[in-house]
Task: inverse folding
């Protein structure tokens, strides 16, 4: 491999994210349990989230708006202002969660720093993702931070253009096969999948990935032998 840039997803690759969303969803289901079963509430919230992605994109702020909209639909627009206030409170708590680095992340970044150009390539809200990177203490390891509206092949092509590299010089590391692996392989790059114990349903795929440029590891430190 002639790798020049190693890119890392942020959420659930560098630090914990999805479990916090699941905790918030549990609170939301409890708040709305007079109207529907927990499963029904979760399904309605997920449907609203997916419908809203083209409008709000990924991230906590869009999630807060989707919770309010889902609550309106579930209750047939009968929820009180106190319920809306509670949802906003849940969202602010989510935005203020402390950063919890995953095992081996800093060790891996220290080992690669100075030998390769390291970048963050992540989806979500720009302000929130920059806040998390700053609070994580990892920012100084990275040459470039790219907060992407989506992670399709075109989005990666655009990123590589800004980095002035070819696809075969790009190596992506992340926890989502759908967002971090398949589009990178599709443009001719290299990708490693590090499964996280919980994954948002929208990021799941239903087929096995087989490709000469694809690898999977159990923890982030296991990527290091690929580069030495």
Result:
């Amino acid at each position: 491999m002639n790798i020049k840039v190693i890119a890392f997803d942020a959420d659930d690759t560098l630090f914990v994210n999805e479990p916090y969303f699941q905790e918030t969803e549990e609170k939301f289901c409890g708040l709305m349990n007079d109207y529907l079963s927990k499963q029904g509430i979760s399904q309605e919230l997920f449907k609203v989230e997916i419908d809203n992605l083209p409008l709000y994109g990924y991230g906590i702020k869009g999630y807060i708006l989707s919770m309010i909209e889902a609550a309106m639909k579930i209750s047939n627009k009968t929820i009180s202002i106190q319920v809306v206030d509670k949802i906003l409170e849940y969202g602010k708590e989510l935005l203020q969660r402390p950063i919890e680095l995953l095992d081996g992340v800093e060790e891996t970044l220290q080992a690669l720093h100075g030998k390769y150009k390291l970048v963050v390539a992540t989806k979500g809200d720009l302000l929130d993702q920059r806040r998390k990177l700053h609070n994580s203490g990892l920012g100084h390891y990275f040459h470039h931070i790219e907060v992407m509206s989506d992670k399709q092949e075109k989005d990666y092509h655009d990123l590589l253009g800004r980095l002035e590299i070819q696809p075969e010089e790009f190596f992506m590391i992340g926890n989502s096969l759908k967002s971090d692996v398949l589009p990178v392989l599709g443009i001719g790059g290299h990708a490693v999948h590090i499964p996280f114990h919980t994954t948002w349903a929208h990021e799941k795929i239903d087929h096995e990935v087989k490709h000469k440029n694809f690898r999977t590891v159990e923890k982030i430190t296991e990527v290091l032998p690929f580069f030495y």
The longest strand covers residues 117-123. The chain is about 45% helix and 10% strand. The chain has a mean pLDDT of 93. The two ends are 10 Å apart (CA to CA).
